[in-house]
Amino acid sequence: METMKGLVWRGNGEIQLTDLPRPRLREPEDAVVRVTLSTICTSDLHILRGAVPRAIPNTVLGHEFVGVVEEAGPLSGVRPGQRVAANCITFCGDCWFCRRGFVNNCEKGGWELGCRIDGGQAEYVRVPYAHTGLTSIPPQVTDEQALFLGDILSSGYFGAQLCEIHPGDTVAVIGAGPVGLCAMMCARLFGAAQVIALDINPKRLRMAWQQKLADATIHPSSSDPEQAVKALTNGRGADGVIEAAGGEDTFQTAWKIARPNGVVALVAMYEENQTLPLPQMYGKNLIFKTGGVDAAYCQTLMDLMARGRLDPSFLITHKAPLNEILEGYRIFGEGLEDCVKWAVTPYERSR
Question: Given this model, what pLDDT does residue 292 score?
Fold first, then answer.
């Protein structure tokens, strides 16, 4: 039996890089992908902390990856040798929800890779429903650019889309982490004239500013967010707010900085229940929209990258082989060394 290396979540916060059987095709829609680049996501940390009840122990983690198709089922829609980027959502494409574009709610899928079935922090991965779960990477797009296509870039795009942005709008993004930075990029695509970034990490705010993703930055510990946003919007508040932080009080900040009749898009993954203080917000007539990664626009985003309109590769601040992934979890998980995204290159057997 051929084996490979993969990072397995054992449950109770324990992860182990170990030898595993190399995956094989099971269904006609399957593809087996040789992983050329993967990454560690905050959602992986949520699994380790026990905040994802549907996660199954003894599963290989990882749902952000790109690679090359090694084996392809007859209904997979891909071919061996093809470079592909993975969608973190597994969806059949044919159920009631999929036909209406709500792929995150697929009756046969959802967040499966790296949560309920083996994911991409390994040398190889089996991708079910490859005809919907893999997007071909054109020659002009690098692995580093395509790496975030099916998760954080799709999340940022989804958040911007939920905000119903009109040309000239002001959009406030809470959280200048990977998803928030992608949301800022995508808010520009939808026509936002002013993007405001809010975060408690000054280095993340500096990155948003230096990458020209934000026109203004607010540190909630230094300025009252509500007053600061009003000062930047002639006293109205933000037309749209994208909540991408998921902190203890960021939900409250989100509705407070929105203007009356504005849209608040909640794309963060919370670990605790949030309170909706209806008496306090009465009369603001806010529209709340929530969602996980409804990654139904991977081809659109890939086309935008191919044409030079999007490039999220700057998010990669650290890169090391699969051999060092435990160190990657430590550094990324503890927020050390200004790590934004830790990219994982293939396992090096010569070590």
Answer: 73
How many CB atoms sit inside 10 A of residue 113's CB? 29
CATH 3.40.50.2300 fits 153-290, yes or no: no
Q: What is the pLDDT of residue 31?
A: 98
> In degrees rounded to 5, what are phi and psi of residue 31?
-140, 145
* pLDDT exceeds cutoff 80 at 351: no
Question: Which amino acid, residue 185?
Answer: M
pLDDT in tens, 78-91: 999 999 999 999 99
Question: Rounded to two decimals, what is the model's pTM?
Answer: 0.93
DSSP string covering 131-177, please?
Answer: HHHEEEPPTTS-HHHHTTTBTHHHHHHHHHHHTT--TT-EEEEE--S
User: Helix 225-232 to helix 250-257 angle, to the nearest 10 degrees?
Assistant: 30
Q: Which of 59, 44, 54 is nearest to 11 (CA)?
A: 59
> Whose CA is closest to 104, among 241, 225, 269, 219?
269
Query: 3-151+295-345 and 153-290 share one CATH topology?
Result: no
Question: Could you confirm whether domain 3-151+295-345 is CATH 3.90.180.10?
Answer: yes
* Residues 110, 270: Cα–Cα separation, whole Å: 18
For residue 32, pLDDT beyond 80: yes
Banded model confidence at residue 222, pLDDT cuts 50, 70, 90: confident
- pLDDT, tens digit, 9 for 90 and up, residues 45-90: 999 999 899 999 999 999 999 999 999 999 999 999 999 999 999 9
Domain ranges of the chain: 3-151+295-345, 153-290
Around Cβ 222, how many Cβ atoms within 10 Å?
9
In whole angstroms, what is the distance from residue 293 CA to residue 157 CA? 9
Share of the chain above pLDDT 70, in %: 100
Letter string b/e over residues 20-41, b meaning 16 or more CB atoms within 10 A of that residue's CB: bebbebeeebbbbbbbbbbbbb
**Burial per residue of 292-304, b for 16 or more beta-carbon CB atoms within 10 angstroms, e otherwise:** bbbbbbbeebbeb
d(CA 313, CA 26): 33
